[in-house]
Amino acid sequence: MKSDRKIQLYSSEFYAACTLGGIVACGPTHSAVTPLDLVKCRLQVDPTLYRSNLDGWKTIVRREGLAKVFTGFGATAIGYSLQGAGKYGGYEFFKHLYSHSVVSAETAARHSTLVYLAASATAEFIADVMLCPFEAIKVRQQTSMPPYCSNVFQGVSKLFATEGLAGFYKGIVPLWCRQIPYTMTKFTAFEKIVQAIYARLPARKSEMSPLQQISVSFAGGYLAGILCAVVSQPADVMVSKINSERKQGESMAEASRRIYKRIGFSGLWNGLLVRIVMIGTLTSFQWLTYDSFKVKVGLPTTG
C-alpha cells in the first residue's frame, strides 16, 4: 500500500530512503541465490567439477551436508547490503547532481543516456569499495576445499591476519571491471526499457496504479538483467579466479595474464547460462523490491 506521507524529492530524507531501499533490494536477493552463486563460482574455477547445477548441489549435499549449499551466505548478505546502499542511493544522488548541477536540465534531458551511465558508474565505484572485502571472503569460502572459513567473521579475522588490509582489496580492480559495466548496463538499460514500455502503453505512467508501475519495473529489470549478465561475465570469471588463485606478491595484471593464458577466451564464458538465469532473476526482483519500497514510503517508481 502506498504511503500517504510525502517525502520531498532530492531531500536528505529522500536519499536516506533510497539508500535503505537499496539495502532491502540487494542484501536479501543476493543472499537468496547463494546456492546458484556457489556452483557458478566453483565451475568458473574448475569447469570439470560438476556436470550441471543440479549435480553440483547433489554433490555438495552428499559430501558436505545440506547447509553447505549456502556457503558464503553471511559475506554475501553483508557485502551486498552495503553495496546496495551505495549503488541505489548513490545513483539517485549522482543522477540528480549531474543533471542539475554539472549540466543544465535541458542538456541532461537531451543526453539522458550519458547521465544514467555517469551516475551509475560513479555510484558503483564507491559501492564496490564497501563490497570488496566481503566479496574476497565469499569467493575464498566458495572456491576453497575445504571452505576457507566457517563464517564471515572468522574470514575477516583470518584474511587480515594472513594478508593484512591489502588482502581485502587485491580484487578491487577486477571487481570494478565487473561491477561498473554491470551497473551501468543495469541502470541505463532499465531506464530506457521502462521508458519504451511506458511509451507503448495506452495510459500515462501518472495514470497507472502503483501495482501496474511496479509490474513494469519487474519486466524492465529482467530484460536489463540479461544484458548485465552478458556484459559482466568475463570480469566475473576473472574476479573468482584472481581471488582464489592469485599468488603472493603477484600483481593483478600479472595474475590476469597468467590466468587468461591458461583458460583462454572461451574460459571467460564458463557458467554464462547459469549467470543469465541468476542475474536476470536477481535484477528483476531487485527493481521489484526497490520500487515497491519507494511506493511504500511515498516516492514515485524509478524511470
Automatic annotation (TrEMBL):
Keywords: Membrane, Mitochondrion, Mitochondrion inner membrane, Repeat, Transmembrane, Transmembrane helix, Transport. It holds the Pfam family Mito_carr. The chain crosses the membrane at residues 267-288. Signal peptide: none annotated. Its main location: mitochondrion. GO terms for cellular component: mitochondrial inner membrane. The keyword Mitochondrion applies. GO terms for molecular function: phosphate transmembrane transporter activity. GO terms for biological process: copper ion transmembrane transport; mitochondrial phosphate ion transmembrane transport. Solcar repeats lie at residues 13-97, 111-196, 212-296. InterPro entries: MCP_dom_sf, MCP_transmembrane, SLC25A3/Pic2/Mir1-like. It is a multi-pass membrane protein. It is found in: Mitochondrion inner membrane. Belongs to the mitochondrial carrier (TC 2.A.29) family. Transport of phosphate groups from the cytosol to the mitochondrial matrix. This is Mitochondrial phosphate carrier protein.
